[in-house]
């Protein structure tokens, strides 16, 4: 009985010793620390002052540094001359005070030209013109502004219009012309091209002074 009791006592003491050892290991500081709260080592500190250009970027996602071309003066497009079977370059000009009607009518003309396979070279807007309506007082000579009218103009440029098809197209356009919208057809020229740009008298005076 004594020998059995001694063996049980020895095994029990060994188990208690093992448990105490395990507890001391658990209470010790862990070897792996959190990357945020852990202390930085000497090897990590040497990268703090190094540049980070190009890190995390891919070459195919970067924009290429393309050389921008210098914008020169816009040149006039070549003017086609009229032949026996076709006109040259024609400007169909639409103007009116209501911009919505002018835009819708120019869209209708463009769709009509596409339907009849008429070549449309350009479609652009001219600078808006402002007109002031002045009235004089009944008793006095002073003038006051009664209304301000804005004229909106749109131009669609046709090329090589067939002479047989032209009267048919003009008849359709005149029948579908809305009220308050004016329609005119002119031959394209250099003067018509210059009307597209706003005049700068101050700049012209400076340029003339420089040239003198």
From TrEMBL:
Protein name (database record): Large ribosomal subunit protein mL48
Family (UniProt): Belongs to the mitochondrion-specific ribosomal protein mL48 family.
Pfam families linked to this entry: Ribosomal_S10
Domain Small ribosomal subunit protein uS10 positions: 91-186
Protein's UniProt keywords contain Ribonucleoprotein: yes
Major subcellular location class: mitochondrion
Endpoints of the signal sequence: none
Keyword Transit peptide applies: yes
One of the record's GO cellular component terms: mitochondrial inner membrane
SMART domains the UniProt entry points to: Ribosomal_S10
UniProt keyword annotations, A-Z: Mitochondrion, Ribonucleoprotein, Ribosomal protein, Transit peptide
Compartment(s) where it occurs, according to its Swiss-Prot or TrEMBL record: Mitochondrion
């Amino acid at each position: 009985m004594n020998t059995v009791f001694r063996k049980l006592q020895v095994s029990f003491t060994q188990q208690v010793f093992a448990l105490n050892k395990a507890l001391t290991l658990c209470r010790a500081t862990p070897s792996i620390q959190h990357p945020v709260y852990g202390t930085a080592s000497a090897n990590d500190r040497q990268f703090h002052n190094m540049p980070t250009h190009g890190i995390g970027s891919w070459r195919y996602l970067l924009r290429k540094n393309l050389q921008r071309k210098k914008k020169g003066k816009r040149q006039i497009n070549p003017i086609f001359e009229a032949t026996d079977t076709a006109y040259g370059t024609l400007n169909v000009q639409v103007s009116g005070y209501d911009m919505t009607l002018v835009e819708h009518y120019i869209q209708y003309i463009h769709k009509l030209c596409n339907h009849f396979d008429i070549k449309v070279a350009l479609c652009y807007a001219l600078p808006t013109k402002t007109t002031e309506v002045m009235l004089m007082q009944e008793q006095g000579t002073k003038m006051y502004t009664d209304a301000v009218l804005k004229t909106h103009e749109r131009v669609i440029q046709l090329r090589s219009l067939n002479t047989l098809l032209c009267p048919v197209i003009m008849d359709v356009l005149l029948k579908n012309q809305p009220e308050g919208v004016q329609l005119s057809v002119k031959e394209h020229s250099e003067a018509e091209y210059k009307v597209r740009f706003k005049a700068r008298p101050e700049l012209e005076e400076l340029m003339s002074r420089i040239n003198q």
